[in-house]
Design brief:
This protein has 8 helices and 9 strands. The longest helix is centred in the first third of the chain and has 15 residues, at 8-22. The chain is of the alpha/beta class and 276 residues long. Helix 1 (8-22) crosses helix 3 (102-109). It has one domain: Rossmann fold, CATH 3.40.50.
Length: 276
């Protein structure tokens, strides 16, 4: 059976076993997923022990999105072994929800009990400025997809009716606030993309209670929490959304914002992961 047809949880279990073998047999403590513009900050976590092209692992796919590197690496941060994914899969690349969350599922099944999801986001209000990191309080999944749909999971997997009350763990958010008391926080709206939102859509998202909008993260958060991991989310504001700022929007602006903020983002990641 091809990986396209494989049962997604069993495929993630196979990938987790392959990942541990390739990385010396150890499990992981923390998984960090780096979104658009964040890859340049990866070196702030320290030198990699091991770096692997993701396509060498079962079920993983290469990203087609500029700014996403299709590799993963392991690093040591204090006494923690950290798995760093320098890129992710997206729905708009033509992937299913199961394929979008495959890397995160594999990381959790490889032992990562904490998952730090980063992303690039448009700000829905002018108080949030490009270059700012923003702590994710909660999310609106507006993609029209869930990684928990489909046939019932295998017996060794939690039931699919997962509680999302504490999706972005308050305990982990408190850790970040202890390090960065002034960090802004907001609700992240995840949409399918790839087009940027219209001004009317931006107004609707703001009225629905969102402060940030992006094209990732929400499915991975659900998948990680379903398997029992604690989830932390940090967005990088890369632009003001349509109707909030002036001028046209493009992906180059997203990448440029990440490059400009690479050094402080790297220091933030290191401090946060060390404190988790």
């Amino acid at each position: 059976m091809s990986t396209e047809d494989a049962e997604p949880f069993s495929l993630a279990k196979v990938a987790a076993e392959a990942l541990r073998r390739r990385c010396g047999g150890d499990t992981f403590d923390v998984a960090v997923v780096l979104g658009s513009g964040w890859a340049a900050a990866a070196d702030g976590l320290g030198p990699p022990e091991i770096e692997i092209p993701v396509v060498e692992l079962p079920g993983f796919v290469a990203s087609t999105v500029p700014g996403h590197r299709s590799v993963l690496r392991t690093v040591r941060v204090g006494d923690r072994r950290v798995l760093v994914l320098l890129g992710r899969a997206h729905l708009y690349e033509g992937h299913t929800a199961a394929r979008v969350v495959h890397a995160v599922r594999s990381a959790v099944l490889a032992g990562a009990s904490t998952v730090l999801l980063t992303n690039a986001a448009g700000a829905l209000e002018a108080r949030l400025r490009p270059g700012w990191p923003v702590l994710v309080l909660d999310q609106l999944n507006l993609t029209g997809h869930s990684p928990l749909t489909g046939p019932s999971p295998p017996a060794w997997v939690p039931e699919r009716f997962a509680d999302m009350t504490d999706l972005y763990a308050e305990r982990l958010r408190a850790v970040v606030r202890s390090l960065y008391p002034d960090i802004p926080a907001g609700v992240y709206a995840g949409v399918a993309g790839p087009q940027f939102e219209t001004p009317a859509e931006v107004r609707a998202l703001a009225q629905a209670g969102a402060h940030l909008v992006g094209m990732s993260t929400v499915l991975e958060a659900v998948a990680a929490r379903h398997l029992g991991a604690e989830v932390l989310g940090i967005s990088l504001v890369t632009n003001l959304a349509a109707g909030v700022g002036s001028g046209p929007l493009d992906h180059r602006e997203v990448l440029d914002a990440g490059t400009s903020a690479a050094a402080p983002l790297g220091r933030l990641l290191l401090r946060v992961v060390a404190a988790l």
